[in-house]
Amino acid sequence: MTEKRTIKAGLLGLGTVGSGVYKLMERQQKEMVHKVGASLCIEKILVHNMDKKREGVDMSLLTDKWTDIIDNDEIEIVIEVMGGIEPARTMILEALNSGKNVVTANKDLVAEYGKELLDAAENNGVDFLFEAAVAGGIPIIRPLKQCLASNEIDEVIGIVNGTTNYILTKMFEDGMDFKEALAKATELGYAEADPTADIQGLDAGRKVAIMASIAFHSRVVFPDVYTEGITGITARDIQYAREFGSVIKLLGVAHNTEDGIEVGVYPMLLPKDHPLASVRDSFNAVFVHGDAVDDAMFYGRGAGELPTASAIMGDVIDVARDIQYHCTGRISCTCYRKTPIKRFDDVKNKFFLRMQVDNKPGVLAAIASVFGVHKVSISKVVQKIITDGTAELVIVTEAVKEYHMQDALEHLKDMETTREISSIIREY
User: Is Kinase found in the keyword set (predicted)?
Assistant: First the structure.
């Protein structure tokens, strides 16, 4: 029978997520010996401010010295929940190179420096796990790496930012405008004081880079991801989406094609019958298509203290099991291919275009001619007369290369009869 021992962990950070990890570790204390085959405990917690009162936390565990963790040979797992690139990157590398296993929730770090960290883990025969870096409590990294490992995956699309999904839900269901919905999201704590990373698609972009890398076995980094936010979405766009039997969602989209990997984050009109269309408020979901599994969707809480802590602790328990049975480093970097990243200009998308034009004969024909010149096929036109000689025109295109659409838009902007290009949104 395997001897029961205690596996010790060091926790870097005691903010919202770090507190959740501490609570969950305490809550599960009696179960650990059965789940892991050993006891599991937090030995030290690295904090910035030693004087801050922390209710429910054993204050003797706190330290503001990294050396108390890195130089402690009894600590076998380092849990990083500080966020940001530095000093997290340096600390994680030091931990891996000293033979400690690492669990992180740091999407920024994994999206930019994942290869370096995974290589360090592999070179030292230790685990580096990051389930919580994407979609909070929803299991997606492990399913892609393990459960779906026999699949050739060609599509991963998802709602991976709860703030923007909440905002768009409020705009669609309650008729709020963008600013009002953002204020509500901030009030409820879904949006940060500076919501730029969320509403501009940057947060989702980092998560999509990570998912695409794992799903397609080829390195995708954040700068490869085309990002576009939701600040331009208006109540009028929502109204048209409803008329067309669609919703608007900020989607992370990754496709593995014969010509390379397509990867981006942008608002899309999504048919109401698509599984992702019913994902509301701050919930997240990831939709995967594989050649064997066909369609699969993972749905749940994408952020928050305990949902994120759930994903972190799942990784910690996995690492502890590997330590207990002497098999750390089992699953390291799975990016064994070198698939090119497709230029976003060459990606094909359908478009919803809303514009204000002079309300007079010949304008629609002239616009159709411009689209024809730039190889853009039209699938639907809706014309509504407004006022002051202006007509609102909505055009939905067939799938067209991004650069053809951009050329057509530049041409349209130069026409005297065009008063405004109001919205350009991609359509699924």
Answer: no
Q: Does domain 6-136+305-324 have CATH number 3.30.930.10?
A: no
Per-residue pLDDT at 3: 57
Number of neighbours of residue 60 by Cβ within 10 angstroms: 8
What tokens appear for 284 in the block?
């997240």
Its CATH architecture, for the domain 344-427, is 2-Layer Sandwich (3.30)
Do the annotations mark residue 10 as ligand-binding? no
Report yes or no: 79 and 100 within 8 Å, Cβ to Cβ.
Answer: no
Residue 372 in marked binding region: no
Domain boundaries, the chain: 6-136+305-324, 145-301, 344-427
- Residues forming a β-bridge with 349: 400
pLDDT over 70 for what percent of the chain? Answer: 99
pLDDT at 222: 96
Active centre residues (catalytic): 207
**CA–CA distance, 193 with 244 (Å, rounded to integer):** 35
Q: Going by CATH, does the domain composed of 145-301 fall within 3.30.360.10?
A: yes
| Angle subtended by helix axes 363-373 and 402-414, to nearest 10 | 140
The pLDDT tens digits of the residues spanning 90-141 come to 999 999 999 999 999 999 999 999 999 999 999 999 999 999 999 889 999 9
CA gap 25, 314 in Å, rounded: 11
> 17 among the known binding-site residues?
yes
Q: How far apart (Å, rounded) are the C-alpha atoms in residues 20 and 14? A: 9
